[in-house]
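Students often ask why we bother encoding 3D structure as a string. The short answer is that it lets us treat folding as translation between two languages. Here is a chain of 250 residues written in the first language.
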Amino acid sequence: MTLHNEKLTMDTEIEEECGKKMKALYVFCIAIKYLKEQVIMKLRSICLNVTQDDILFVLTVPSIWSDQAKKFMKTAAEKAGIGKDQLTIALEPEAASMYIRHALRLEVNKKENKMLQTIKSGMKFMVIDLGGGTADITVHRCQKYETLEEVIPPSGGPWGGTAVDQAFLDLMRNLFGDDVIDGLKEEDIEDYYHLLHEFEIRKRSVKSKGDYERIIAISMSVTLIDLIKKFRVLDTLLFYQLLLALKVDG
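And here it is in the second language, the structure alphabet:
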């Protein structure tokens, strides 16, 4: 989401959890290079003669990203060793729409034992892509010869799953203070990420409206408990209530 910034440049830096900075272009370049190498290894395990020159790489980006952010991703991919003629930048929700068109275009009529076309020519469909950083929405119309027409421009915003994670961290900071959470990152980064992982698991367990009413327990590390004791003096009963349960009220 650092790239969702009007002031983005090729020299923009990003910060890791403990405050160290590095150029975003370098970080994205290394990530894309790793993915590229994994793709080639996977393809070679199926077809031994494949080379990088045989591949057209499609790099997807959120629809809300600016032209500058798209240019940034293209530059990072080129620095990762992907040639301009082998690279296509595509919007994530549009890629999802193309997948939906192919994956859902046929259904089985069990009574007559035959395939029926689900997405027919002229039919409109909406794809809502709820990702980690963004939520992207597209509406397309299926045309003849299996092409897609854009009904309205893609839209969305920074409303992905990481926004929920940030709300959880804000809650923890409000309960225990910035010094406790910052201290946890400095003293035991592994426990800090374990806390976030615990929340991620519980977050995914919420499947229906009724789940918003129940108590969701999250375990906390000894380091975090010690920091809370060090920086905060709480009523004993309240202290253990906060440690043992987090009520999600929707």
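Translate back mentally: The helical segments are 24-46, 67-79, 92-103, 161-176, 178-187, 189-204, 222-231, 236-244. Keep this in mind for the problem set.
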